[in-house]
Write a structure and sequence with these properties.
The complex is a heterodimer. Chain A has 15 helices and 14 strands. By secondary structure, chain A is of the alpha+beta class. In chain A, the strands form 4 sheets. Chain A has a 5-stranded antiparallel sheet. Chain A has a 4-stranded antiparallel sheet with strand order 11-12-13-14, sandwiched between helices. In chain A, a hairpin with a 2-residue loop joins strand 4 and strand 5. Chain B is of the alpha+beta class. Chain B has 2 domains: about 35 residues; about 150 residues, Ubiquitin-like (UB roll) (Roll), CATH 3.10.20. Chain B is elongated. Classes of the chains: A alpha+beta, B alpha+beta. At the A-B interface, strand 1, helix 1, helix 2 and helix 6 of A face strand 6 of B.
């Protein structure tokens, strides 16, 4: 790796000030598992002048129940989240998502904030030495549109309608399904509004803004949630499709459903049609199957990724059934 | 948010100008020990304490392997995708290629050399069950297994597989690892 300045921040204020001072040429490092790979491969035209370590900010890894839900500090590790008794019981989808991310070692290092703020995995974007100056780097075209797009978006593009790289996070759909909020150094943003694609950006964060925590509202009585992931390997792999659902039932009938797919579109995608379809129905094979079909009804696959559509459809169905009274076994991969 | 140009190295206070900072230092920290500069870290590796000056771009792997000469951990993918460089940091298996050495201040690191020097039965079990062919991935597997047994002395076969799922072996020796780890687990918990 080329050298850079390194700062151990002692507070979020200090880290934000330092970020501001470098005007976008510095990066925050927490787990570092995504950032260091990007720097080693030199995938971006600009190499960060400075890294600002926020692991030295005290108390940022706390997981605590609050009056109205649960607060998870930005530095809480994925391993910690996947094994936390309260998250396992009340926010099951998030525990399952954190537990299926990457590998055991990476889960000991990677943080929830880093998993939300991670960069895309498109192989043209990630090619070493900034080989493809694509739309996401401010270049002129998307190489995946005409090239190999077998793992790209089935719901259209971003950035001038071109870039079809998907968002790879496992925890993001769980957070959205659970109605979570991302707390930053400046504001609170609903998890569903947090992801926004532009050049060099996967989130709404400003250049000197830092995620400090994630907040989950207490689930309504009768709520069950689940997460499922389809990947080519069980471990050390990014999702081909993943899905999280949080379903609130009164008796057997669904009163509210929140379903979110990820890795199928440029940002995590709420399956609104499927959610409406589930309202008032029981969670059974027929309803779940119809919801799966509704979730992918408006899919527009590219040349090479039509195979992802039935996977997304089936994953919605299975995730819904996993939220039902007789949860199905996870056979998603 | 108030902008603070300079932060006191002793406490959290921020100041607008060097003069204000100087006055504060003289008033409040006249007799305090000078904090070490960035790049100076203290850490424990295999029970031995080190105080080292490191560059920001050194990974923990470079520190342990190239500078301390502990060549057990291996670099293969250098992107956090194979597990060959696994070391135990504060009791947890982590990938030393994806951690900056400068951020390891105050940590306790254990490498495969430490596991062997402590006479851990894993080493013999790996030899006995020949849980390797070329041997390149083996130090990563051994450190990961050691961390598992420290955390969970009686793992099930499934738990062993999950714990070792971050380590790749291109020779395909996976079944032997489970056999070796489960045997050591029985041995350690029986005594």
């Amino acid at each position: 790796m080329k050298n850079f300045e390194h700062f151990n921040a002692r507070s979020i204020d200090e880290a934000a000030t330092l970020l501001g001072r470098y005007g976008g040429n510095a990066a925050v490092i927490a787990g570092g598992t995504d950032l260091l790979g990007k720097m080693k491969d030199r995938i971006l035209p600009a190499y960060p002048e400075a890294l600002i370590n926020i692991k030295t900010v005290p108390g940022l890894d706390a997981i605590a129940e609050t009056d109205d839900g649960l607060s998870i500090g930005a530095l809480a590790t994925l391993a910690g989240i996947s094994a936390h008794p309260v998250i396992l019981e009340k926010y099951t989808a998030l525990a399952q998502a954190a537990g299926r991310t990457a590998s055991p070692q990476l889960r000991n290092m990677g943080t929830i904030a880093g998993n939300l703020c991670q960069d895309i995995r498109c192989w043209y974007y990630r090619a070493a030495q900034n080989r493809f100056s694509c739309l996401r780097k401010g270049g002129g075209r998307c190489y995946a549109l005409k090239g190999d797009n077998r793992f790209h978006s089935i719901f259209g593009g971003s950035v001038k309608g071109g870039c079809v790289a998907v968002h790879p996070s496992d925890t993001a759909p769980a957070l959205i399904a659970l109605g979570g909020t991302v707390i930053t150094s400046r504001r609170a943003v609903k998890a569903s509004d947090f992801f926004k694609v532009s050049v060099n950006r996967t989130t709404v964060l400003e250049a000197d803004e830092i995620v400090t925590a994630v907040h989950l509202p207490a689930p309504a009585p009768g709520t069950r949630s689940a997460f499922m992931k389809f990947a080519l390997r069980q471990s050390i792999d990014f999702p081909i499709v993943n899905c999280a659902a949080a379903i609130t039932c009164e008796g057997d009938a669904v009163t509210r459903a929140r379903i979110c797919l990820n890795a199928v579109s440029v940002v995590p995608r709420r399956a609104a049609a499927a959610e409406q379809l589930m309202a008032g129905r029981n969670i059974d094979e027929t309803a779940a199957d119809a919801a799966g079909a509704a979730a992918v009804a408006d899919a527009e696959p590219l040349d090479g990724n039509a195979w992802m559509v039935p996977i997304a459809r089936t994953l919605v169905k299975r995730t819904l059934l996993a939220c039902g009274p007789d949860p199905a076994e996870d056979e998603s991969s | 948010m108030e902008t603070k140009d300079i932060t006191c190295p002793h406490c959290e206070k921020g100041f607008k100008s060097p003069d204000e900072m100087k006055a504060h230092m003289l008033a409040d920290h006249r007799n305090d020990e000078v904090p070490p500069p960035e790049g100076h870290i203290r850490l424990t590796v295999n029970g031995k304490a080190y105080a080292l000056d490191v560059q920001p771009n050194w990974t923990l792997y470079q520190l342990v392997h190239d500078h301390l000469g502990l060549t057990g951990a291996k670099q293969f993918c250098d992107r956090g995708a194979c597990g060959s460089c696994t070391v135990i940091m504060d009791g947890k298996p982590v990938l030393s290629c994806m951690i900056l050495a400068i951020e390891c201040d105050g940590t306790t690191i254990e490498t495969v050399e430490g596991v062997a020097a402590a006479g851990h039965p894993l080493i013999d079990a790996y030899v006995k069950h020949h849980a390797m062919q070329c041997g390149y991935c083996t130090p990563g597997f051994v450190t990961t297994s050691k961390a598992l047994l420290d955390d969970n002395p009686r793992p099930t076969a499934h738990e062993v597989k999950i714990a070792l799922s971050g380590n790749l072996c291109r020779c395909g020796t996976y079944p032997q690892h489970t056999i070796a780890v489960l045997e050591v687990s029985q041995k350690l918990t029986a005594s």
